[in-house]
């Protein structure tokens, strides 16, 4: 029998269909919290998005109430996210890892980190702006004509 109609030349082996290749991932290691929190947030979001786990952290996905299969999938993505967050905090100079290691979900861990790191940044911004707000008031008080002069 000949396979000439299928485009195969006799005497040459027929090529097997190649399996679909998974897209390349940037890294197998979770990003570390080095530098600013904003940089860590961006790296972690990319890392977890590659593993279909960012929605668990950001609150875009919640655990299904009744379907055991969906609960199992959610729990696996949550485990991946919790491990990535803890690995990223390992070796940090602050106590973030110790603070979040006992929390039950990746979303809870992430919300705690966001609250701690963004609140601190906001308070620094307020302190930096404060002298600029006070200075005009002091100048007005010094140059305001006194009514008690006679």
Description:
It holds the Pfam family Retrotran_gag_2. The protein has about 150 residues and is mostly helical. The protein has one domain. Helix content is about 55%, strand content about 0%. The protein is built from five helices and no strands. Helix 3 crosses helix 5. It is extended, with a radius of gyration of 29 Å. The N and C termini lie far apart (about 125 Å).
Spans where pLDDT lies below 50 across 5 or more residues: none
Number of domains: 1
Main sheet? none
Please write the string of helix (H) and strand (E) elements: HHHHH
Number of helices: 5
Beta strands, count:
0
Which class best fits the helix and strand makeup? mainly alpha
Mean pLDDT: 78
Helicity, in percent? 55-70%
Beta-strand residue fraction: under 5%
End-to-end C-alpha gap = 123 Å
Radius of gyration: 29 Å
Judging from the principal axes of the Cα atoms, what is the shape?
extended
């Amino acid at each position: 029998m000949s396979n000439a109609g299928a485009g195969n030349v006799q005497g040459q082996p027929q090529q097997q269909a190649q399996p679909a290749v998974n897209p390349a991932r940037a890294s197998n290691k979770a990003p570390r919290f080095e530098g600013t929190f904003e940089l860590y947030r961006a790296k972690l979001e990319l890392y977890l998005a590659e593993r279909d786990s960012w929605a668990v952290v950001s609150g875009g996905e919640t655990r299904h109430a009744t379907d055991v299969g969906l609960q199992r999938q959610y729990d696996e993505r949550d485990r991946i996210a919790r491990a990535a967050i803890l690995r990223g905090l390992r070796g940090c100079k602050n106590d973030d890892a110790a603070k979040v290691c006992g929390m039950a979900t990746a979303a809870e861990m992430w919300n705690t980190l966001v609250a701690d790191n963004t609140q601190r940044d906001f308070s620094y911004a307020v302190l930096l702006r404060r002298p600029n707000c006070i200075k005009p008031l002091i100048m007005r008080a010094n140059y305001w004509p006194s009514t008690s002069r006679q």
